[in-house]
Write a structure and sequence with these properties.
2 copies of one chain form a homodimer.
Chain A: H1 6-9, E1 16-21, H2 28-38, E2 44-50, E3 54-57, E4 64-67, E5 69-70, E6 79-82, H3 87-94, H4 97-107, E7 112-116, H5 119-125, E8 133-134, H6 141-148, E9 151-152, E10 157-160, E11 163-166, H7 171-183, H8 186-195, H9 209-227
Parallel strand pairs in A: 1-2, 1-6, 2-5, 6-7, 7-11, 8-9
Antiparallel strand pairs in A: 3-4, 10-11
């Protein structure tokens, strides 16, 4: 049967393909939250993609996730998921033409193009959010509008055409369950919510900037900066 | 100053050390949810530990996380976190004396010994849960009692002495925020909840077996099995 093409390697199963972009300094939970849901949607396969195959370190530097494919090996996907990062990581990704071009190119043929947290800024850099209702990490909301012409919209995630942008970090889980219902059906998505026992009971009520208030907002940004590499 | 000892290598910063065990077939979100919170607790460092340094594949086989230390390099930690796995992964870990002995040995000197999901079964195998109120993944609750003599307790996580066991997968995030308040203080934990924008709005109300009912329970277990390697 000859050598497998890179595309064949990236598509071991039939069905829907989910490509999760990894890049230096990405935020682990932005990628892993949605992964944990989408990897169990029937007839769907997930692949991690980065500039190079191999470990990619997160924003804190203390965790590495493995990218199984290089960008040039994955030329199309049904679902593209772009996670966010800390300031330095996301700026570096936005300035990286190879990453931005890949996002723009995949988007042309996706069924769904999605982001979590500041991943929306990378979609914005690729020119995908002009005039599009969207959300991002709470601390980057203004930036999304002023720099990329997105239309700020409320909610844990915002669906606009085939683009779904999620709010910060943990919001990727809510978005992925919503997406699972689109890729399969509502009953499957409900079962996947149980599969990850997602019956959240946060110990505090400080998960949004409005609920947390300005002092905790400042402290959150300081803790993020202190732990960043 | 001579060569660094393995312990020194595992302790690049002062302060609290969090060791996250990785093993073949673990569930990614069990580890990454708590990591995303604990890595930003001030004066706390997180390290991933496995039998061998390098990539460890998850229960679905489609994601790899990097273990930065081998078990023998990490001889103590202030916080031990044991994630869960699918059936095959957790059984293999329970039957692996090197893993179970390491958990038992670290536990002697931890400040907190914690598990997420079926990670509790590994704590149980190490003999740490006899007569201890504990929880685990919803589908393994009975097993925890009958096999290890734990006392089933309700809640997203159960704290008993220095042992904290969380329910399935996503419950590790709730537990980690609780733990962050213990390691630092409540204000810091509240800010960390904002840092990960954890204001959950699940699209369905099916995150516990009681809410989901028997049909979705069966479907969830089937989806887990179908995606398992």
């Amino acid at each position: 049967m000859g050598l497998e093409t890179p595309e064949a390697v990236a598509s071991p199963r039939r069905g829907m393909q989910v490509a999760i972009l990894l890049y230096d300094g990405f935020t682990a939970l932005d990628a892993v939250g949605p992964y944990e849901v989408l990897c169990r949607v029937p007839d769907t396969s997930v692949v991690t993609v980065a500039k190079r195959v191999g470990p990619v370190r997160t924003d804190t530097g203390v965790l590495g996730l493995v990218a199984d494919r290089a960008l040039h090996q994955v030329r199309q996907a049904d679902v593209l998921l772009v996670p966010g990062a800390g300031n330095r990581g996301v700026i570096a990704a936005m300035e990286d033409a190879e990453i931005v071009d890949w996002v723009r190119r995949l988007h042309k043929h996706t069924t769904w193009t999605t982001s979590v947290c500041t991943g929306a800024l990378i979609l914005g850099t690729a020119g995908l959010l002009r005039g599009v209702p969207a959300t991002t990490y709470w601390a980057s909301r203004t930036y999304l509008e002023t720099t990329f012409g997105a239309l700020p919209a409320p909610g844990r995630f915002v669906e606009s055409g085939k683009i779904i942008t999620a709010a910060g970090v943990s919001a990727g889980v809510d978005m992925a369950l919503h997406l699972a219902a689109k890729l399969a059906d509502e009953r499957t998505a409900q079962a996947l919510q149980l599969a990850i026992e997602y019956d959240p009971q946060p110990p505090f009520d400080t998960g949004s900037p409005e609920k947390a208030g300005p002092d905790l907002q400042q402290l959150a940004l300081k803790l993020l900066e202190d732990a960043a590499v």
